[in-house]
Automatic annotation (TrEMBL):
Residues 9-141 form the HTH marR-type domain. PROSITE patterns: HTH_MARR_1, HTH_MARR_2. Pfam families: MarR. This is DNA-binding transcriptional regulator, MarR family. It comes from the Bacteria. InterPro entries: HTH_MarR-typ, MarR/SlyA-like, Tscrpt_reg_MarR-type_CS, WH-like_DNA-bd_sf, WH_DNA-bd_sf. The keyword Protein biosynthesis does not apply. It comes from Neomesorhizobium albiziae. Keywords: DNA-binding, Transcription, Transcription regulation. One of its GO terms (molecular function) is DNA binding. GO terms for biological process: response to stress.
Amino acid sequence: MPLMKLDGTERLGFLIHDAARLMRKRFETLGAAHGLSAAQWRLMVRLVKEEGQTQARLAELLEIEPISVSRLLDRMEESGWVERRQDAGDRRVRMIFPTEKSRKTFQAVKGVAGEVFEQAMAGLSPEERRITIHGLATIVENLSVAEAAAETELTALKGSAA
């Protein structure tokens, strides 16, 4: 493995982690007035953007355990944020949908998110903002491709071992 150049890139992981943590904390502070936890916000946003998901798919999208999603959904359903419906094709499967309350609150969430993003990007020129977003999108794409390749390789190895 090649040695990393000391050009600042050795801090990349820490900087991305800290930026995400601080943005999440700021979002929680500003979003608390709407009565949802950060995990509930994330789930609600996913549902409004991609309604009709299964609990298993939501767990995958949010990268949390299915039992945790189930508990979140229980609390959100009791408070009128989501509703569960049986899948028309498979009665064992329950699909999750946002309620009108979620859809209305989603608009407020977008405003809070915009405020947090603006605070995060303060002091950056429009060009620096564009470059930052492009750089992060490229990092996500690179790592997504690498992850998919690793999963394909692992599947192939498991297949040949059988």
